[in-house]
From TrEMBL:
Marked site positions, Lowers pKa of active site Tyr: K76
One Pfam family in the UniProt entry: Aldo_ket_red
Keyword field: NADP, Oxidoreductase
Positions with a binding annotation for substrate: H109
Protein name as it appears in the record: NADP-dependent oxidoreductase domain-containing protein
Keyword Oxidoreductase: yes
PROSITE patterns: ALDOKETO_REDUCTASE_1, ALDOKETO_REDUCTASE_2, ALDOKETO_REDUCTASE_3
NADP-dependent oxidoreductase domain boundaries: 14-289
Similarity remark: Belongs to the aldo/keto reductase family.
Length: 312
């Protein structure tokens, strides 16, 4: 199943997340994902594993399991490459690692730029992040050029708020095709999703299962997949809580990129296209909302383009 927009942009509604898919495992995980039917792989330079993801894609292409046109590969521009002259450099590096000649979608990972030409997480001697002044509008112009040059079929943004997205829309030549943002029943993110969809932008939800293994999770944090109501709704359809929360997003016309390195779970997460939730069930699930972000990055909240200070 694809999500599509009036602009002709099309993206498979369920993709495989690769953040924290460990080196040494991610290659076999991506091969298994393609074998069980995934056609959309969500990658990023910052995940540090694009080289292995690329090995898996290359292996599957060369054995004829899929052809390039069947696959939808997303990558993301990291914060240390926002300076316009570095955008193409970063894109080409991801392409080299992924062993591809073009990306289906290239996203600006975050609106905040960090100082260039250093490590991915540049910090001073006190452990404070070192920022860059680059305006994401200038970065966007360089993203548009990637489309002109055929290096990316489509470009978009991730973790932008409505004000930042509006600023791009008002100043762009090519509007963002896609917005990738956090959304799960604990962080429904409805106003931003409505804003983007009304502007014709396709929305993909990251951390759709609540990101239970995020590195900063604390003992006592709420566990989405343990919610009894999700289990009860799932039982009605013979589905798991994970399948219910993924289907919840599809009912809102929002794509999902759940991460797993386990073939059984990958299959489970893809097997969400043969049932529907009722309007009442969607509302009940949305009522879980706690405005609880799994990915907050509060340590860079003083950046002038930090996106999560606005209401949405
Ligand atoms: N744009 C951004 O800034 C951004 C930020 C965060 C995430 N993302 C993208 O979104 C993807 C997904 O987000 P996420 O990795 O934070 O979290 P998630 O997909 O919400 O949750 C992944 C976790 O759930 C487990 N899991 C997977 N399927 C399951 C199932 N059916 N039942 C029970 N547990 C299951 C996985 O473990 P196993 O692997 O052991 O199965 C993993 O620990 C990322 O991998 C990345 O591609 C993007």
């Amino acid at each position: 199943m694809y999500l599509s927009s009036k602009t002709g942009f099309k993206i498979p509604s369920v993709g495989l997340g690769t953040w924290q898919a460990p080196k040494g495992e991610v290659c076999s995980a991506v091969k298994a994902a393609i074998d069980v039917g995934y056609r959309h792989i969500d990658c990023a330079a910052a995940y540090g594993n694009e080289d292995e993801v690329g090995d898996a894609i290359a292996a599957k292409l060369s054995e004829g399991a899929v052809c390039r046109e069947d696959l939808f590969v997303t990558s993301k521009l990291w914060n240390t490459y926002h300076r316009p002259d570095l955008v193409k450099v970063a894109c080409k590096k991801s392409l080299e690692n992924l062993k591809l000649s073009y990306l289906d979608l290239y996203l600006i990972h975050w609106p905040m730029a960090y100082v260039e030409d250093r490590e991915f997480f540049p910090k001073d001697e006190n452990g404070k992040f070192i920022f860059s002044e680059v305006d994401y509008l200038d970065t966007w112009k360089a993203m548009e050029q990637l489309v002109d040059e055929g290096l990316a079929k489509a470009v978009g943004v991730s973790n932008f708020n409505s004000e930042q997205l509006g600023r791009i829309l008002a100043n762009c030549r090519i509007p963002p095709a896609c917005l990738q943002i956090e959304s799960s029943p604990y962080f429904v993110n409805g106003r931003l999703i409505d804003f983007a969809q009304r502007a014709g932008i396709t929305v993909v939800a990251y951390s759709p299962l609540g990101s239970p293994k995020r590195p900063w999770a604390k003992p006592g944090d709420p566990q989405l997949l343990d919610e009894p109501l999700l289990k009860a709704i799932g039982a009605k359809y013979g589905k798991s809580p994970a399948q219910v929360v993924l289907r919840f997003q599809l009912e809102r016309n929002v794509g999902v990129v759940p991460k797993s390195v386990k073939p059984e779970r990958m299959k489970e997460n893809l097997d969400v296209l043969d049932f529907s939730l009722t309007k009442e069930e969607v509302e009940q699930i949305a009522a879980f909302n706690k405005d609880y972000r799994a990915v907050l990055l509060e340590w860079v909240a003083h950046h002038k383009y930090y996106p999560f200070k606005e209401p949405f």
